[in-house]
Design a protein that fits this description.
The protein is mainly alpha-helical. The chain has one domain. Helix content is about 55%, strand content about 5%. It contains 5 helices and 2 strands.
């Protein structure tokens, strides 16, 4: 018998911004996009142009704070959760 184990989550990892956006509902996207307009220009520009955000980046803290304020702690956590690799066996 062969057992497949998921690797332990990394403490430092990358979050693809497209993945985060795809998890948002249309209503959540409207709320987040409107709230981003209130951010300082440099931060907004960084978040707009980056394809990914790393967990050790100052920008992740700002993104987490924004999502927490406008969508709540639980939803922000869901959106920023590390994606684990899929099992090659479809489990």
């Amino acid at each position: 018998m062969v057992a497949f184990r998921y690797p332990e989550p990394n403490k430092n990892y990358q979050l693809q911004k497209l993945t985060i956006v795809q998890k948002l509902t249309d209503q959540e996207a409207d709320i987040v996009y409107s709230a981003m307009a209130q951010m300082p220009a440099k931060l907004r520009l960084a978040l707009d142009t980056a394809s990914a955000v790393t967990t050790d980046s100052e920008f992740l803290g700002a993104l987490k704070a924004l999502l927490t304020v406008v969508l709540g702690t639980d939803r922000a956590g869901q959106l920023l959760q590390q994606e684990l690799p899929q099992s090659p066996f479809g489990c």
